[in-house]
Specification:
Radius of gyration: 25 Å
Order of helices and strands: HEEEEEEEHEHHEEEEHE
Largest sheet: 7 strands, mixed
Number of strands: 13
Number of helices: 5
Structural class: alpha+beta
Strand content: 15-25%
Length: 367
C-alpha cells in the first residue's frame, strides 16, 4: 500500500477554503432556501477593483419572528428591584393634588386644561436632559385624545369596551381607550391574522398607545435599565431626584399611538428604544405636565405621581404587527422580568379639564 504524505500547509489551506465556502453558502441563503446576491464595492470590476481582492461581505439573513433570540443576559443583581416609593391614589377633589395635574389629557391643537400650575414641561428630547428610557408598555386604545386622529370616531375589530382575559387577551377587564381612524374591515392589512410569537393578546386593526417612561434616575446604559414595573426603573437611583420637588424636569414619558397592520411595509425594528422620530412620526408633539395613568385612576381617584412631563405624538400611525412582536422579543431579553408588560393594559378615562394642566403646548420638532 502506497502512503501519500500531504504537507500540513496544504491541509490548512484546503480546510480554510472549505470553511469559507460553507460560510458563504449559509450566508447567502434565506429561510426559504433561496439564494441572495452578495457583492462588495471593492471587488466590483466596474469600480476598478479586483473581483478577488476581498472576500464577499457576509450577511446574516434572519428568519421569521420565532427565530428571534430571547435569551437573557448573565444572572446578576437587579439593583432597581423594589425602588418604587409607594404613593397611594387620592380623591381628585382634595388638596393632595394641588399642583399635580393628571394624564392622559386632550392633546388636540390649542387645548389647555383648567388647572393652574407654576411649572413647565420639558420641550426638548429627553436624552438632552440626561434621561433614558426605563420601560416600554402599551394601553388598549389611546389614553390621550387628539381630535381627528384618535378620538371617539375611530374604530377597530374589537367593539366592546371591556374584555375579560379568559384567554389573557388583555389584562383583566381592560378598558378600551380612543381609536384611530385607519381601520377598514375589508382591507387585508387590517383583517389578515398575524401569528404572535412574543406579545400576548394583540389584535391586528386595533389601536394601542405605547408609553416609554424616561428618567435621569434610571440605571442608564446598564443591563438593569429596563424594568417592570416601570416605577422601579424611574426611581432606581432615587437619590438623584432630591426632594422630588422638580420631578417634571427629571421624569418624563413619550407616548405614540399606533394602529397595528399585517403589512411589512410598516415594519420598524427598534420600537423598544423609544418614540419613532422619522418623517411624520414624532413630528407634531404635544408637551404638557401630568401624572402616571392606568385604570386605577379616573376623575374621582387621582395619581400622586405628578408632575411629570409628557411628550405625545398628536398623530396616529400604522405599524406592522411584526414590529410589536420584535419589541416583545427584545423585552424578554432584559435582565428584569418584563412579562407583565407583554400584554396591553387598560386605558384611563380622559382627564377632566379641571385636572389637566394649563401649560400644554404644541411644537413641530423640525420647525
Amino acid at each position: 500500500m502506497k502512503i501519500v504524505v500531504i504537507p500540513l500547509a496544504v491541509v490548512a489551506v484546503v480546510s480554510l477554503a472549505c470553511f469559507i465556502a460553507t460560510v458563504i453558502i449559509v450566508a447567502t441563503r434565506d429561510t426559504s432556501g433561496k439564494s441572495i446576491s452578495l457583492s462588495s464595492g471593492d471587488g466590483d470590476e466596474s469600480s476598478g477593483g479586483s473581483p478577488v481582492a476581498k472576500l464577499p461581505t457576509i450577511i446574516v439573513v434572519g428568519g421569521d419572528e420565532s427565530d428571534v433570540s430571547t435569551e437573557k443576559p448573565f444572572p446578576g443583581e437587579n439593583i432597581c428591584a423594589g425602588a418604587r416609593p409607594w404613593l397611594d391614589n387620592v380623591q381628585c377633589i382634595s388638596d393632595a393634588i394641588d399642583g399635580k395635574p393628571q394624564s392622559g389629557a386632550n392633546v388636540t391643537k390649542g387645548y389647555k386644561g383648567d388647572m393652574e400650575v407654576d411649572h413647565v414641561p420639558i420641550d426638548t428630547p429627553y436624552w438632552k436632559n440626561k434621561m433614558c428610557p426605563v420601560n416600554v408598555h402599551w394601553h388598549f386604545g389611546a389614553e390621550h385624545y387628539s381630535a381627528g386622529q384618535y378620538d371617539e370616531f375611530g374604530s377597530g375589530p374589537i367593539l366592546n369596551a371591556n374584555v375579560d382575559n379568559l384567554d389573557r387577551r388583555l389584562e383583566l377587564n381592560a378598558r378600551k381607550g380612543f381609536q384611530c381612524r385607519y381601520y377598514t374591515k375589508d382591507d387585508p392589512k387590517f383583517n389578515t391574522p398575524y401569528v404572535w410569537n412574543h406579545c400576548i393578546g394583540m389584535e391586528v386593526g386595533e389601536t394601542y398607545e405605547v408609553h416609554w417612561p424616561h428618567s435621569n434616575a434610571g440605571a442608564c446604559g446598564t443591563v438593569n435599565q429596563y424594568q417592570t414595573p416601570f416605577y422601579d426603573g424611574v426611581f432606581c437611583h432615587i437619590e438623584r431626584l432630591g426632594d422630588l420637588s422638580r420631578t417634571q424636569e427629571q421624569i418624563g414619558v413619550q407616548a405614540q399611538i399606533f394602529t397595528i397592520v399585517n403589512d411589512e411595509d410598516y415594519y420598524y425594528p427598534n420600537l423598544m428604544r423609544g418614540m419613532i422620530v422619522d418623517g411624520d412620526f414624532g413630528q407634531d408633539i404635544a408637551y404638557y405636565t401630568g401624572s402616571t395613568t392606568g385604570t386605577t385612576r379616573d376623575n374621582d381617584m387621582c395619581s400622586q405621581y405628578s408632575p411629570i412631563t409628557w411628550q405625545v405624538d398628536r398623530k396616529c400611525h400604522m405599524i406592522s404587527a411584526s414590529s410589536f412582536d420584535k419589541m416583545c422579543a427584545d423585552m424578554k431579553t432584559q435582565r428584569d422580568d418584563m412579562s407583565d408588560d407583554l400584554v396591553a393594559h387598560g386605558s384611563r378615562e380622559l382627564v377632566d379639564d379641571a385636572f389637566a394642566a394649563d401649560n400644554g403646548k404644541r411644537q413641530l420638532r423640525n420647525a
